[in-house]
Amino acid sequence: MTRNDSLESLHLEGFDAIQTGHWTLKNDGHSVILQVGSGMAVSGGGLPDVYHTIQLHFHWGRPATNGSEHTVDKRRYPMEMHIVNMKSIHPNMSAALEDPTGLAVLGFFIDVVYAENVHFGHISQKLSSVAYKGQTAKVKPFPLMSLLPKHNMSQYYRYYGSLTTPPCSQVVVWTLYEVPIYISWSQLAQFTSQIFSTEEDAEQVTPLQNNFRHVHPTFSRVVSASKDAKLLKATAGRPLRSAASVLQIILLGSFISGL
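== Carbonic anhydrase ==
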């Protein structure tokens, strides 16, 4: 891992605003996705362009196991949230997938405490309406920044990698934030126990669990710490090299992993 002092806080345009209309929450059988429409954009912080925010989604484990897609110092968090942003010059996702930096994904660990996260309730309170695959629900827009650890947004890690779901295209500029979002145990349980990967009328309903991709070694990828992020000592100042295919980032000793 190397320190990159040019990696300052990203500019999150429109994240403090309340959009008009409504957002759509959907269970697609693989995750719960919040489609946020237009009005928000991400730039700066070493990103190569301006990226428009299109959706956010979640990864989790089981009631007794953690399910984040990245790990830090070998720790896997209970959940992880991804905010997906598409480069503004592209008319659609197909075009973005042809660009090595077509997408910018902001990753946030989700950890658990006993107190409810009121802002996260905008999403968790709607989960019962999208318990089964194919179900959708309208969500009243809220300031997306209210979900984020806004006082620690300059602390993150950066690498170039791939999507974590098929087609796993290597087109993503990853920004993984160091400080997690905190939700309650009951809010976590709504994901791990009350969401299903099957349709409501299926003969046998299947809980949607462990919807994260496992850690894989890197392929000549370097992970950079922003100017304010913790520099993991086991790899400080040394670029990471590996001959394995890149799906997730692993740093031996102290490490961050993901894809």
